[in-house]
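May I ask for whichever protein you like with its backbone structure tokens?
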Amino acid sequence: MHTSRGIKTASPSSDQLNDCNCTALRKASRRLSQLYDSALAPTGLKSTQYSILSEISRWTETPPTVRQLADALVMDRSTLGHNLRPLERDQLVSMAGVETDRRRRHVGLTQKGVATFAEAKKLWRTAQNHFEKRFGASQSAELRGILLGIAADGAFAQPMSASASTR
């Protein structure tokens, strides 16, 4: 292991070296989720719930539909529905049907949801600052850009041909 900007990185001789991008990303994601979950704990929110509330809050004109929210979060609707249930139970979000199409539902923040999100955002900022101090502000911005670029690229979700997997 060697250290870059205070972050231990695996060296080629390390037993922990894994050439699977997905595994490395999931490991890092779990570690960062621990950081953010710990920071958000006083609000009772997990980082996944915070990200949902955060995304809903970005929709200032009209609350997003479940499909729009799922697409924005790069989640399938079933998983999003599973994650919305506790938020709805705790009265942080409300679901309202669309008059012209009862199958479509808008997801909005309740007053309690707005207040909880405002409180959580301060705690999230503490975790964000901690990460950026440890990893570096410019490296953090670069990492976010790369990860958001991957998230936005639907080609990563497409099945590969057999010839593409051997390249």
